[in-house]
Every structure is written in structure tokens, then in C-alpha cells.
Amino acid sequence: MPAADENDQPTTVLSFVRRNENNSVFAVFNFSAAEQRVTMLEANFHGDYTDFDSGATVTLTDADAQMTLGPWSCRVFTR
Q1: Is the pLDDT of residue 1 over 60?
Q2: What is the pTM of this model?
């Protein structure tokens, strides 16, 4: 079951982490027509991931707790 990862824009941005024994997904979705600067309020997303769009390996830390999402966009990270 997904664990909601609280953020400071809950009316426009959905963020969650879903894990099992072997894999993890951290996803952030902007469900609005405006650019959103969002701050994650929990540290459930920390760790090494693959950016789903680019395929790049990234390490997410407290420094990544803020991100800007374009209108109707998302960021998805997998491991």
C-alpha cells in the first residue's frame, strides 16, 4: 500500500512512496495548470534511485526535499 509522503502543496501536488521487499517508487504529481514549488515534509524518499524519465541514477537527500514541477507534470523515481 502506498505511504503518502506529506508535502506543503496538498491541494495540488500528490506525493507518495511505495515499497516492497525489493523495490521502491517515489512519485510526485502536479495536478494543476500552474507551476508548483513543493517541499516534502517527511524523509520517506531518501536513497539511491533511477529517474524514470531520464534513466539517470540519483541520490535523494534532504537537499532534494524541494522541487519545482511544471503544470500537469510529474517526477517518478524507482529502485
Answers
A1: no
A2: 0.87
